[in-house]
Amino acid sequence: MDLFQAVPALRRHPDLQGKRIALVGVSSIVRDDSAVYFEIGKPKYWRPRDDGVTVVGVGGIGGSIEAGETVQACLRREVAEEMGARVRLEPAARTFLINEWQVVDEFEVAGSKKRLPPLMVILDPPRLGGPDTPDHLAILVLRARLRDAPTVGDLLGLLRIEEGALADYFGPDEVPLQVAETMPGVTVSLGGPLPDPAVLRPVLTGRAFQLLVRAGYEGPSKD
Predict the structure, then answer these.
(1) What pTM does this model have?
(2) Angstrom distances, CA of residue 44 to CA of 48, 84, 176
(3) In which region does residue 169 sit, left (phi positive, over 0), alpha (psi from -120 to 50) or beta (all else)?
(4) Alpha carbon distance, N-terminus to C-terminus of the chain
(5) β-strand 87-90 against 136-146: which pairing, if any?
(6) Where residue 163 falls among pLDDT bands split at 50, 70, 90?
(7) Helices and strands: H and E segment counts in the chain
(8) HSE-up (13 A, CA, CB side) for residue 185
(9) 73-107 pLDDT, tens digit each
């Protein structure tokens, strides 16, 4: 899907005008009344290091859009599969543009019930060349509020971080699992074992959210 098909108002942003941008994934920052939730990555995405530590990714809840599916339908399906819960998708008061892992702009996006303003647009260079190669690949990140108590659905685990603990958790580049399990305001829920030793490192939507927190973003309930 083309990014501008999902959010037509983004065409007017000066950094995006005239660009071809392929939407390769949609993701969400899922929250309840006081905390945000992230996915703990599955073993196929783990990365062993030379020092014997395994790097486990922490990302947003989401995935790829299926044929005939809208962005909102995709996110509702993904949250239901991964967290066993329903959500209410929420418009973002501010949209953050992230390009090559830097926050390059913050702006307002006109939206509607069918095309909610996203919290983040994450751009990345394409990995292959050729005449049909887009200028950017993109992940669209929306806000979502839980309507049910979450469970560890088909995920390996969930990381729940109270909004007051976001700055502490996302301050370092990575957090050892044993440290995360004892941090105030942080809850690690696992449906399977993690290697020992392991560190949790933000990836994709998690990494983009870390950039926002380091820039002073306090959490979706503060908007």
Answers:
(1) 0.94
(2) 11, 22, 19
(3) alpha
(4) 29
(5) antiparallel
(6) very high
(7) 5, 14
(8) 13
(9) 999 999 999 999 999 999 999 999 999 999 999 99
